[in-house]
Amino acid sequence: MIKKLLRSVREYKKSSILAPVFVSLEVVMEVIIPLLTAMLIDRGIHDGDMGYILKIGGLLVVCCAVSLTFGVLSGKHAAQASAGFGKNLRSDMFDAVQSYSFSNIDKFSSSSIVTRLTTDVTNIQNSYQMIIRVAVRAPFMMIFALIMAIRLCPRLAWVYLTIVPVLGVGLWLIMSRAHPIFERVFKTYDKLNRVVQENLRGIRVVKSFVREDHEVEKFNSVSDEIYRDFTKAERLIAFNAPLMQFCAHFCIIMISWFGAKMIIASGNDPANGFTAGQLTSMITYSMQILMSLMMVSMIFVMIVISRASAERIVEILDEKPDIVSPEDALKEVADGAIDFDHVSFSYSDKAEKMCLDSVDLHIPSGATVGIIGGTGSSKSTLVQLIPRLYDVSEGSVRVGGEDVRRYDLDVLRDAVAMVLQKNVLFSGTVRDNLRWGDENATDEQLEHACRLAQAHDFIMAHPDGYDRMIEQGGANVSGGQKQRLCIARALLKHPKVLILDDSTSAVDTATDAKIRASFALDIPDVTKIIIAQRIASVKEADMIVVMDDGKIDGIGTHDELMKSNEIYREVCESQQNGGDDDE
After folding, report:
1. Model-level pTM?
2. Do residues 201 and 263 make contact, with C-beta atoms less than 8 angstroms apart?
3. Both 380 and 252 in a single domain?
4. What residues make up the domain containing 288?
5. pLDDT value for 582
């Protein structure tokens, strides 16, 4: 886990190395200072030697200045390294998510991914800064100070040997009990994010049904759950401070008590034994040792918090895309011919029933195919296999005469354009959104695609035209306008296969008819697959496929299906009675 996380350090290795180097040098200076202080008291002040006092005092000033310089440099490099590490880690996680197939994404909720990219990475970033600075400083300080303290007075070393194991056991008990609680807290954070996202996405529905109080209650319920768990974990961690205070006071009392006795016994004579200067240094070293242990305890607390975050981040990085390009991938799609050969598919290996069951279908290149079926008949699932958004469980799907698993993914998906019922527009201008289809498209190409999608007129009706700003998600355009912009965006890919998955559901029947007529005239060589609820949308198709419960129930033209397929006939008659047919 640690090895995988450290791969994200990359160009910040230099700062990651310099930070602990400067910290070590800072520690050396700080350990020398108490020794110089003891010399100043015992030889300078005790003997009244002003020259010696000035000499040692000057060395103290220099050591303090050098220590400060090393401290500033270590802080600077630690900040650069940790911030850079966090940046790279977020980038690596985001890149990993972008490479996921739909089946990979299905394993993680969007709220969970957001939490891992934000809260969890921040925890790891803070921990990394502490590790390369504090985690180096604390053991170095403790070891050096312990060596100097034992060198000054070996007889008082038993104080440290008594207190350090007590502190170590206490810290271990705190950490072992707090970690499971923090693991639970981060899972609850995912739930909190999901509640917020659902509320913001459906804010219009919330307000129209006057359900604000319900949403507030739902948010407060999750927030209270986080509060309870955090309180429980922090209550355990709160024992850290009093434990440290007890150890610090115990050391100071013991050293002061026994040190004072030794000074009295020796007459405060350096030649005979222990002195006041040495006692001052011993107390300083004791504080340095205990402060180092306190830093170690802080690191333990941070590790307790960040360990759960690290595990969640590594889950994202370890997740391997189910769908990848083969080694010898085909780089060109010959045409838009599509073949489904005994295709069966399930979203889960553990599913008892296939979503698609033994589907056989041949679509010639350039044909217009309509797909009709009730909700849950797997119409959308069928077409998602064409650009390899999912891979078949059994059988094969061929585009241009080749199995889709043989193509380079980018090549295949560039050749297959999908327009979904709930397509997304991004914040930016209309022009920016359209150029997702072709970033190098000219204004003339943009206009041509928009005319085919019947979008040009409403675009130009706005004073800013193609420079009109679109809000996030296309919130400032109607559902029909959004669908037409998405159709135009797909056309700019110049695909060999165009899939419209109920993507004119928000468009009136007259505009729908105009879109289909423009397709027939301007893109006759493109294979067009139209999934629709309205018979009018597929009536003129070269072939109509009737889906029912994951199987093909019938194939033919409108007239053929009216005679031979009961499902199609019932749908057609119900819509004609309801006046939904544009004829």
Report:
1. 0.69
2. no
3. no
4. 2-318
5. 43
